Structure prediction request, 111 residues.
Amino acid sequence: FNIEWLHVLLETAAERLKSSYQQEGKDEYYKVFREYDLKGGEQTYEEVARRVGVNASQVNNFLHAARKRMQGIVLDLIREYTLTDLDVGEEVRDLFGVESLELWMASPPRA
Prediction:
């Protein structure tokens, strides 16, 4: 059940991420995130940069920003169905296998 729920949670968060970047006119942030993190595979920043039409340095910066935003969206979604911050921390531990919310926040997960 947790795997199925995690999949739904991450899909929903990715859609919200895409929408938020579209509203800001920053489609390339989501495109880089989609190409590198969501599609997976063995690819370099340079390959992603060529496909999206940016440079490798921008890929690095866009990924950092998108991962942090994605993490915030995931937390917002979890907060929608939990009652307390303690519940949020427990849910993060259960879903992502980390011991604390602070540890998870210090290192954005790859989707």
